[in-house]
From TrEMBL:
UniProt-listed Pfam families: LRR_8
One of the GO BP terms on file: septin cytoskeleton organization
Protein's recorded name: Leucine rich repeats and calponin homology domain containing 3
UniProt keywords, alphabetically: Leucine-rich repeat, Repeat
GO CC term, one of those recorded: cytosol
Database matches in SMART domains: LRR_BAC (SM00364), LRR_TYP (SM00369)
Organism taxonomic ancestry: Eukaryota, Metazoa, Chordata, Craniata, Vertebrata
Stored SUPFAM superfamilies: L domain-like (SSF52058)
UniProt key word Lyase: no
Length: 404
């Protein structure tokens, strides 16, 4: 009987149970351990545990545990027993009092999910970066930095370090080639690393920081669907652009990129990011043109381009007129020569009008009609041939014109 009382007292101290009594708490704990042994999922959430229940767990085989939920307790460290679950894939330590993560956690080489948010960690242990993590949640701690070794987490898809005291993000974060979701909101960041532009991010949240500029290279985030940047003293892009949403932000970044590289070819000025958004924005516009993005309610086609195309037919009438004038002068010269020879051989010049088709591009309609009435059928065919020649010259000129 004294042994039973002692066991009950130990459970009470560990669990901190209330009016329900130690026996009720013990039965609940036993059921949780039995279910864990059968299913491989250990759930000890919300039991106010200050330590791992070693005594109760000793009678159960938990070596095949794949999921462990120890959230909402009062643990001051990661239980060493949890580091012996070599098959563990998911470990939830949310809302405890953990200040330290032991190196023994490296035993968990199957661990892909780790939630250590709402604890009292001041540093992110380097040995965590040697685990095959896909999700790392370390929000609401006291972190002041992210280790450079973070770049070793090549399989990491989600990183949440929000609500800490982080001042800089190491450039090695650019090595996280699988990262899709990055949450660094509510920290002390002043600059954003340019290396993020090379990642396949879908969601980016850097709100509630001290960011003044979004790097121009972020326009390369071609997969990005959600960007949250409120509560930052942003100057580039300015606030009036940011409040219009991600499409306008990326238009602004593309325009800034064109200013930085003034000799950028037209095909490089087209935006890169945002996936399918580009077909909607640019399907009806020339490849080198960019929508200004400053007034989306306007129905006009606003363009910004360093090389606006010119109308290749704008000077065509002038060129045709020059050809016609050249032909007219040539025919006038021929007419004068023929007229002189006709005066000598035939003694008159009236027949010349029947043989020569004189075209004056500056003549009025009345004068043209008089000349037309004075022509014979042979001169009509000559005029038709001449106009055909002019039309062929115009078509040939259009084909050889350079395309702008």
């Amino acid at each position: 009987m004294p042994a039973a009382v002692a066991a009950a007292s130990g459970s009470l101290a560990a669990g901190g149970c209330g009016a329900a009594g130690p026996s009720s708490w013990t039965r609940s704990l036993e059921r949780a351990l039995e279910e864990a042994a059968a299913s491989g999922s250990l759930s000890l959430s919300g039991r106010k545990l200050r330590d791992y229940p070693r005594g109760s767990a000793a009678g159960h085989d938990l070596s095949d545990t794949t999921q462990a939920d120890l959230s909402r307790n009062r643990l001051s460290e990661v239980p060493p027993e949890a580091c012996l679950f070599v098959s563990l894939e998911s470990l939830n330590l949310y809302q405890n009092c953990i200040r330290y993560i032991p190196e023994a956690i490296l035993n968990l080489q199957s661990l892909t999910f780790l939630n250590i948010s709402r604890n009292q960690l001041s540093t992110l242990p380097v040995h965590l970066c040697n685990l095959p993590l896909k999700v790392l949640i370390a929000s609401n701690n006291k972190l002041v930095s992210i280790p450079e070794e973070i770049g070793h987490l090549r399989h990491l898809m989600e990183l949440d370090v929000s609500c800490n005291e982080i001042q800089t993000v190491p450039p090695q974060i650019g090595n996280l080639n699988s990262l899709r979701d990055l949450n660094i909101r509510r920290n002390h960041l002043v600059h954003l690393p340019e290396e993020l532009a090379e990642l396949p991010l879908i969601r980016l949240d850097f709100s509630c920081n001290k960011i003044t500029t979004i790097p121009v290279c972020y326009r390369n985030l071609r997969h990005l669907q959600t960007i949250t940047l409120d509560n930052n003293p942003l100057q580039s892009p300015p606030a009036q652009i940011c409040i219009k949403g991600k499409i306008h932000i990326f238009k602004y970044l593309n325009m800034e990129a064109c200013k930085v590289v003034p000799d950028l070819p037209d095909y490089d000025r087209r935006p890169i990011g945002f996936g399918s958004c580009h077909e909607d924005l640019y399907s009806s516009r020339p490849y080198g043109a960019l929508d200004s993005g400053f007034n989306s309610v306007d129905s006009g086609d606003k363009r910004w381009s360093g090389n606006e195309p010119t109308d290749e037919f704008s000077d065509l009438p002038l060129r045709v007129a020059e050809i016609t004038k050249e032909q007219r002068l040539r025919r006038e010269s021929h007419y004068q020569e023929h007229r002189g020879s006709s005066l000598v051989t035939n003694g008159g010049a009236e027949q010349d009008l029947d043989q020569i088709d004189f075209i004056d591009s500056c003549a009025t309609e009345e004068e043209e009609e008089e000349v037309r009435q004075a022509k014979c059928p042979e001169s009509d065919s000559l005029s038709t041939q001449f106009m055909t020649y002019i039309e062929q010259r115009r078509i040939c000129h259009e084909v050889t014109l350079p395309f702008f």
